[in-house]
Design brief:
Elements lengths: L14 H7 L2 H4 L3 H17 L5 H19 L12 H13 L12 H37 L4 E6 L2 E7 H26 L18 H7 L9 H6 L2 H27 L7 E2 L18 H24 L13 H25 L1 E2 L1 H9 L5 H10 L4 H18 L8 H7 L7 H4 L2 H6 L9 H20 L1
Antiparallel strand pairs: 1-2, 3-4
Helix pairs in contact: 3-4, 3-6, 3-8, 4-5, 6-7, 6-12, 6-19, 7-10, 7-19, 10-11, 10-12, 11-12, 14-15
The protein binds arginine (ARG).
The site of arginine (ARG) has 10 residues, from helix 6.
């Protein structure tokens, strides 16, 4: 195949180099954005009198036809083409002859590709944001159903204090709200226009970069042509925002894996979202969540690939930067796969309320409340803490719990104890009274759900 730059070269490029160099296998997915960018460019060239109005219109018509033909399957990508940009330009020239050759006036693939990735990722961010929104809505729904479902809260994976399942779900909703906020922020910095930076040094033509920006729905042209073609911060920012979101999904997955084990039995996943074993008939495995935990590693890896790929590059474009696409596309594809599966998996899981409550009832989860009981009767907290520690030790030696320990044993430790201690340390009281702002009490969970829905509305529209 004769290359675009054949004039300068005396030999054809080695076929191995051609295959090695080519990116069409993974950048063809940007065809729509490439055409959108070219239409804006051709429009501006015509308006500025850089090419004739009729050539501009012909180019736009030709580009639209190519788009239709790709979408209808009439036009297939040529795997020998160097990349999607060359492919579309060559196809345009094939169709329009000399007019097609005018499209690349005052443009380089360097600003073209920088633009295409921004436009492509801008669309992907919208999809991912919508999925995260759906996940938050699902969490709010589950939290509503379980605002008063008592479960143990953990630190060090040791039973710590009682909380509600709704409270636990809403903790993840907060993380995901921040994820949307991070995506909004990434999108804001991504949505600026590198087109017109040309190869690196702008152009001598009288182009209008503000016009292409507004045609493309971008806020403004990037203000330095060298930076315009060299910058991939937006890929790194997106990969980083996605890594954080995956890390959240991974922690959630880890909890679901624990909760669905026989040791916990807090939840049961729907059969449609579990898998069996090829040898052990009793097994029901939480493969989906394990795969999400595993895929988190690869999204974090994508982020690392991008940072490492960029860190030694002199300005401006270097071919190394072609590697950006596989990394960021992988991150985007995988988080979508995860979210699409995770949402219905959560939505269909069964919450085993009684098991959660039974686990909360053991393990001295109300010890802090026992100490607080003494504090509320005037004792300094440290003293109360020590006395309660003694009571716990006594319960352990007598193989009983604080709820069942006789009042005489309490009184032996402190005269402040009375029969009302049993109400004070009952699980229901422990949870109901934890009504500090952001706390696990059912009324507070309901409040958090409302706030979260409001915040989601703001962030999603904002
Ligand atoms: N396929 C290339 C990439 O993805 C397009 C830019 C090529 N520019 C160049 N000067 N070789 O980065």
């Amino acid at each position: 195949m004769s290359m675009m730059w054949a004039g300068r070269f005396s030999k054809e490029v080695d076929s191995k180099v051609n295959a090695f160099n080519s990116s069409i296998a993974f950048d063809a997915r940007m065809y729509r954005q490439d055409i959108e960018g070219s239409i804006a460019h051709a429009t501006m060239l015509g308006e500025q009198g850089i090419i004739s109005m009729s050539d501009s219109l012909e180019l736009i018509g030709g580009l639209k036809e190519i788009l239709d033909d790709i979408e209808s399957g009439k036009l297939e990508f040529d795997s020998n083409a160097e990349d999607i940009h060359m492919f579309i330009e060559a196809e345009l020239t094939k169709r329009l002859g000399d007019v097609g050759k005018r499209l690349h006036t005052s443009r380089s693939r360097n600003d073209q590709v920088a633009l295409d990735i921004r436009l492509y990722l801008r669309d992907e961010i919208k999809e991912i944001r919508l999925l995260i929104k759906q996940l938050i809505e699902t969490l709010c729904k589950i939290a509503e159903q379980h605002a008063d479902t008592i479960m143990p809260g953990y630190t060090h994976l040791q039973r710590a204090q009682p909380i509600t399942f709704g409270h636990h779900m809403m903790a993840y909703a907060q993380m995901l709200l921040r994820d949307i906020d991070r995506l909004n922020d990434t999108e804001r910095r991504m949505n600026v226009n590198p087109l017109g930076s040309c190869a690196l040094a702008g152009t001598t033509y009288n182009i209008d970069r503000f016009r292409t920006s507004s045609l493309l729905g971008m806020t403004e042209p990037m203000s330095n042509s060298l930076d315009g073609v060299s910058d991939r911060d937006f890929c790194i920012e997106l990969a980083s925002a996605l890594s954080v979101c995956m890390m959240h999904l991974s922690r959630f997955s880890e909890e679901i894996i624990l909760w669905s084990s026989w040791e916990f039995k807090f939840i049961e996943l729907d059969d449609a979202f579990s898998t069996g074993s090829s040898i052990m008939p009793q097994k029901k495995n939480p493969d989906v969540t394990e795969l999400i935990r595993g895929k988190t590693a690869r999204v974090i890896g994508d982020n690392m690939t991008l940072l490492t790929m960029m860190k030694g590059l002199p300005l401006a474009y270097n071919k190394d930067m072609q590697e950006d696409k596989e990394a960021i596309f992988d991150a985007v594809d995988n988080i979508k796969l995860c979210l699409v599966t995770f949402i219905p998996m959560l939505d269909t899981m069964t919450v085993l309320k009684d098991n959660m409550r039974n686990s909360a009832a053991k393990g001295f989860i109300n010890a802090t409340d026992c100490a607080d009981y003494l504090v509320k009767k005037g004792m300094p907290f440290r003293t109360a803490y020590k006395i309660t520690g003694g009571l716990v030790a006594m319960c352990i030696s007598k193989n009983t719990t604080l709820e069942e320990l006789p009042i005489e044993d309490y009184k032996q430790q402190s005269e402040l104890f009375d029969n009302d201690v049993y109400t004070a340390i009952s699980l229901d009281t422990c949870v109901k009274e934890r009504k500090s702002y952001g706390g696990p009490a059912p009324e507070k969970v309901t409040e958090q759900i409302e706030l979260t829905r409001k915040k989601l509305e703001e962030l999603y529209n904002g």
